[in-house]
Design goal:
heterotrimer, A mainly alpha, B mainly alpha, C alpha+beta, A: mainly alpha, MetI-like fold, 12 helices, elongated, disordered N terminus, C: alpha+beta, Dipeptide-binding Protein, domain 1, 2 domains, five-stranded antiparallel sheet, 17 helices, 29% helix
Chain lengths: 314, 308, 542
């Protein structure tokens, strides 16, 4: 049996000859290698990965190559931004300036940096906590499931704003608190989706076989349930990233998040949208372009990952 | 199954009670008061206002009284900001509005998103896949707060086809822009979840068997694949519909619909405890109810799923 | 800009002498063709919380209440007093007793006559602690006899010094001579109230199906956060001269959305225009874009609390003065706000009635000279290494101004500023409790007189959030209440605030709005921006 076939067998439930996962040592690694090969064959996905890398490079290096930083005001621009504040190589404002005459290139770069971090932290929390929580709830079932899911119901319904305001009062405002604030909310829907899938998965033959052979529950969840959830988890995680980036601007509105002169993509887009009628299209255009590029790239990368992780698919 | 539903309905009571206590505690701890204003109000005015709204009582009494009034009279109490309204009045005005456009948006998002997702999955890795997916994502790249002003700019100012806002009793031409603005943001999520789930199902052994038997694709999809593929979509739709039905503040704000989302956010910012609590309870009830519905749908989709 | 001296206060005495004052009403000019459809539609930036005149505390609601109800006196297009329900009044005993004669034909919308006891009922209701009006303090401000005791709950509401001598005669007794008392009756809190309606319906009396009002319009429909409509009240005593038949209000929270809808012709008046759009609108729509003074001042108070971690250096007035000098107000008003606001070097708004704006030393310097002086003072103080804690409530405009000011300080004086925004309620609490060095603040006059601003800086004022305290200033402001010539006092108080740099005044507000030129009769000269739709009319479009 080739490694590839074995991997397939492992993940393809019905055909799995080793329901208890005995043969893991070789397969664990090969699964990922195999996935990588498949991922790299997907042109849209690799292209998008490149876009993501470029975005990250822009976010982390952008303001170091820019002649302007993100807070210095170009006084000559103030009051006539719509005339002279546009994108220009001459002035050194490659993306133009914002309504207070600050360089938009540096601000977009710095904002993208924060937003990428927020998006990925949100997604990571959702993937880790949401998946474990949902899988445990769905797999264990019964009263445990009832309690765990009713807790999620309450957390979904509770007015979030007050949680964030209290965090601000109790702790110092900082970017860390922003991550915590975003993380707190990001995993709830994920937990529900994962639980739904788990409810269905746990009745499949391969799980029943594992139970019959005496494999302990945590092991079944880790070995049989979670790997079969990965596709949907990855797709939902990539959907979450843009949502969290926009959610950040709400957190910052309350005062918990990013403070001036720092900014974020969500804030820049909101401010740009407010200037939509003032003949300054670059204020909305560039931040929105970064956001849209991120959205599309995540989509294809997410999809590529899904396909790569789903070995049944060819 | 009846036993299950009854049990869940019984659990709903402590769940909502817990939600009330949690929300009450949060509001109690958060800084700010409903009677704050830029011009520091004189103390005697504050005292009178607090006496009128019973805020001078200890917290446990207020909480007890609230739960009692809610349980016995279904009375959410008077609003702190809208002096001549009760929370019941506010919900009675706003909820039918958000219910209408929320439900429509959800249905539109599903009606477009699900077929797009299925098409993309069936024609996986073809240009049709890319097109379907590209369309769904392209329609949703604009955040609500960018989409709404653009819609009004185009359809109200430039073309003059549709009113730029208002509700007007839910007349159809007032509904279009809010529904479009809201639906697009959920369309892509639904399409993507459908597509990825459908892809997984299409590769499952029982579908392959069905196809090997020579059943036509159309039939395989409709008879066998569709139901299981909807599982994650339904999980997603539960909380999403709960959110949609209680309204989106951005939609209410940009289109002046008079829906409940705007009331809620204004209440939260203005610390109108009564409206916050009322809308939260309403939202909680809808979340619990929809999640019960979702669980019932799970059992319908996959008869092997057993609760209890 | 020409400094107008407003005459709101002086006209009062003139009015008292003349019994037959012409009323003020819609007055189409010869050569103008009236439009078929006499409708006035406007945008509201927020939902008003109530239409109850005694309970209302904000402007959006008051604009509607002013159309629905009518008090003893109204204002004309310049803010002068004109008769409302009262056809005349007489002041006696050194301005401590006012006797108003009500017009015979004043009617409620259900046909009942408007009597003196409706005013007595309304005023007692406003003062009664059981009503819990947030504007209860306004009754105390009027100095009506026993007002302070009634609002405090120490006396019954019927002890209030207002009585109905007969149906058409209302007598008010004041505790102190108040020449501008009649002007105070133009505010909603002192409007009449229809007792039987309120007693019958309680809090619901302002609902569309219950409300009984005495103004030129009645409420036709109301949908919170969406809009409302008013229609002409045929029972109104001056209904014959009311031209506009219908008023439509649209609640649109987002300024940009509102502008787009105005441009689409959905309504006739938009206020305020979105930040930064005024210059463009002025260019594109010169007949429609207006900017008028608004009695509010924008300022940054310093925090004078002891032991609040305020940097030692800020206790040096020269350091505070340097920070104030370094703020280039012209950049803020001309390049950021761009809506006709005026740079501020003193606290009281320049357009306040009877207020002569003092010229501060800083105003005679160019910005370059100010910067040089700021740097000199800064070095003299040992170039303190500061990181200022600055708080503001989340809003684009506050953020922009704070950004620009913090950059001015950074570049001119090397001062760092940590900007902290919060949502409204948290910000208010912070401002009250301390924990900042400077706080973005604004103050709007409650009435058109300088003390409404300057009282704020007295030690015990509830909104003195910087906790500034100066004995001389407190004493002066106390004196000003009874002074024959308060202007002198105001000048000295402004000078004290300036010399101490108790605050950094930034700008004096202007109200920017778009008005359809077909709508005539808008009171552009009324600095309190109190408009009465009954005085408007709509001309036909050409």
């Amino acid at each position: 049996m080739s490694i590839r076939q074995a991997t397939k067998a492992f993940l393809s439930p019905a055909a799995n000859p080793f329901p208890d996962g005995v043969t893991v040592p070789v397969k664990g690694r090969s699964l990922w290698m195999d996935a990588r090969t498949r991922f790299l064959r997907n042109k849209a996905a690799t292209g998008s990965l490149l876009v993501l890398v470029l975005l990250a490079a822009f976010a982390f290096l952008g303001d170091t190559i820019s002649p302007w930083d993100n807070e210095t005001i170009d006084w000559g621009m103030l009051g006539q931004v719509h005339v002279v504040g546009g994108p220009s190589l001459e002035t050194g404002h490659w993306f133009g300036v914002d309504e207070t005459g600050r360089d938009l290139f540096a601000r977009t770069a710095q904002g993208t940096r924060i937003s990428l971090a927020v998006g990925f932290v949100g997604a990571a929390v959702a993937v880790v906590i949401g998946t474990i929580y949902g899988a445990v709830s769905g797999y264990v079932g019964g009263r445990v499931d009832d309690v765990m899911m009713r807790i999620v119901d309450v957390l979904i319904a509770v007015p979030y704003m007050f949680v964030l305001i209290l965090m601000m009062v109790v702790f110092e405002r900082s970017v860390i608190m922003l991550f915590v604030g975003v993380g707190l909310i990001s995993w709830l829907d994920m937990a529900r989706i994962v639980r739904g899938q788990t409810l269905s998965l746990k009745n499949r033959e391969f799980v029943e076989a594992a139970i019959a052979t005496g494999v302990r529950s945590p092991m079944i969840i880790a070995r049989h349930i979670v790997p079969n959830l990965l596709g949907i988890v990855v797709v939902y995680a990539t959907l979450l990233v843009p949502q969290m980036i926009l959610f950040e601007s709400f957190v910052s509105f309350l005062g918990l998040g990013v403070q001036e002169p720092l900014t974020s993509l969500g804030a820049l887009i909101a401010q740009g949208a407010g200037q939509m009628r003032n003949d300054v299209p670059w204020m909305l255009g560039f931040p929105l372009a970064a956001f849209v590029a991120l959205l599309f790239a995540l989509f294809f990368v997410g999809d590529g990952l899904r396909d790569a992780l789903d070995p049944k698919d060819r | 199954m009846t036993a299950f539903v009854v049990r869940r309905l019984l659990i709903a009571i402590p769940t909502i009670l817990f939600l009330i206590v949690l929300t009450f505690t949060l509001m109690e701890l958060a800084p700010g008061s409903p009677f704050d204003s830029e011009r520091g109000v004189p103390q005697y005015v504050l005292d009178n206002l607090e006496a009128k709204y019973g805020l001078d009582r200890p917290a446990w009494q207020r909480l007890g009284l609230y739960v009692w009034n809610l349980a016995t009279d279904f009375d959410f109490g008077p609003s702190f900001t809208y002096r001549d309204r009760t929370v019941n009045d506010v919900i009675a005005q706003g909820f039918p509005i958000t219910l209408t456009y929320g439900l429509l948006s959800g249905l539109v998002a599903m009606a477009v998103g699900i077929p797009l997702g299925i098409t993309a999955a069936i024609k996986h890795n073809t240009w049709l896949d890319t097109l379907a997916v590209g369309f769904s994502i392209g329609a949703s790249v604009l955040p609500n707060f960018v989409m709404a002003p653009i819609l009004v700019l185009v359809f109200t100012l430039w073309l003059g086809w549709l009113p730029g806002g208002g509700w007007n009793g839910g007349q159809w031409n007032y509904l279009i822009l809010p529904v479009v603005a809201l639906a697009t943001s959920y369309m892509a999520s639904i399409a993507r979840l459908t597509r990825s789930s459908m892809l997984e199902v299409l590769n499952a052994p029982f579908i392959r068997t069905a196809r090997a038997k020579g059943l036509p694709m159309r039939r395989v999809i409709l008879r066998h694949a569709l139901k299981p593929a909807m599982l994650p979509v339904i999980s997603y739709l539960g909380p999403t519909f709960a959110f949609l039905l209680t309204g989106s503040v951005l939609i209410d704000m940009f289109f002046s619909t008079g829906g409940i989302g705007q009331f809620f956010v204004a209440a939260a910012l203005g610390r109108d405890y009564a409206i916050i609590m009322g809308v939260t309870v309403l939202y909680g009830v809808i979340v619990v109810a929809l999640n019960l519905l979702v669980d019932l749908l799970y059992a319908w989709i996959d008869p092997k799923i057993r609760y209890g | 800009m020409i400094r107008r001296t407003l005459i709101g206060l002086t006209t009062v005495s003139a009015l008292a002498l003349t019994a037959a004052v012409p009323s003020f009403a819609a007055d189409p000019q010869p050569g103008e063709t009236l439009a078929e459809d006499q409708v006035f539609r406007y945008r509201l930036a927020a939902q008003f919380p109530t239409l109850d005149p005694q309970l209302n505390e904000e402007t959006e609601g008051f604009h509607v209440i002013r159309q629905l109800f009518e008090g003893l006196m109204n204002q004309d297009s310049e803010g002068n007093l004109v008769p409302g329900v009262a056809e005349s009044f007489e002041a006696s005993e050194g301005n401590t007793v006012y006797t108003f004669t009500l017009r015979e034909d004043a009617r409620w919308s259900n046909g009942d006559p408007v009597t003196a006891s409706d005013f007595v009922y309304g005023w007692r209701r406003a003062a009664d602690p059981a009503t819990a009006s947030p504007y209860q303090w306004y009754v105390e401000l009027t100095q009506i006899e026993n007002a302070a005791a009634v609002v405090a709950g120490d006396m019954e509401p019927d002890a209030l010094g207002v009585e109905a001598v007969d149906d058409r005669t209302l007598r008010v007794t004041l505790e102190a001579p108040l020449p501008y008392f009649p002007a105070m009756t133009t505010y909603g809190v002192l409007f009449p109230a229809h007792e039987s309606t309120i007693e019958a319906h309680g809090d619901d009396w302002t609902d569309v199906e219950n409300i009984v009002s005495n103004g030129a319009y009645t409420l036709e429909s109301l949908s919170l956060n969406e809009g409302f409509t008013l229609v002409k009240n045929d029972q109104y005593w001056d209904a014959d001269s009311v031209e506009i038949e219908r008023i439509e209000g649209y609640v649109i929270v987002d300024d940009n959305q509102a502008l787009t809808r105005y441009e689409a012709g959905e309504f006739d008046m938009l206020e305020p225009v979105p930040a930064g759009t005024f210059p463009r609108l002025q260019e594109e729509r010169p007949d429609e874009a207006n900017s008028v003074p608004r009695l509010c001042s924008y300022y940054y108070p310093f925090n004078f609390r002891a032991g609040d971690d305020v940097p030692e250096a800020l206790s040096d007035p020269n350091v505070r003065y340097a920070l104030s000098l370094a703020v280039d107000r012209d950049v803020i008003v001309d390049q950021i706000l761009q809506g006709g606001q005026e740079a501020a070097y003193n606290f009281t708004h320049w357009a306040t009635a009877g207020f002569e704006q003092p010229t501060m030393p800083m105003q005679e310097m160019t910005q370059a000279e100010r910067d040089a002086e700021a740097q000199r003072l800064w070095e003299e103080a040992g170039s303190p290494d500061l990181d200022l804690r600055f708080i503001y409530n989340t809003s684009d405009q506050h953020r922009q101004i704070a950004t620009v000011v913090s950059q001015m300080w950074k570049q001119k004086l090397g001062v760092d500023t940590t900007l902290s925004n919060s949502e409204w309620a948290v910000y208010l609490e912070q401002r009250r409790e301390g924990g900042f060095d400077l706080a973005r603040s604004a103050w709007c006059g409650d009435y058109n007189e300088a003390s409404t601003f300057l009282d704020l800086m007295t030690t015990t004022h509830g909104s003195n959030d910087g906790k500034y305290s100066n004995e001389r200033l407190d004493q002066l402001m106390a004196e000003s209440k009874t002074s024959e010539n308060p202007q002198e006092i105001y000048t000295e108080v402004e000078q004290i605030i300036y010399d101490d740099t108790a605050m950094i005044p930034i700008y004096h507000y202007a109200l920017t709005f778009l008005l359809n030129p077909e709508i005539k009769g808008w009171p552009l000269e009324n600095v309190e921006n109190n408009w009465y739709v009954k005085d408007f009319y709509r001309t036909a479009s050409e």
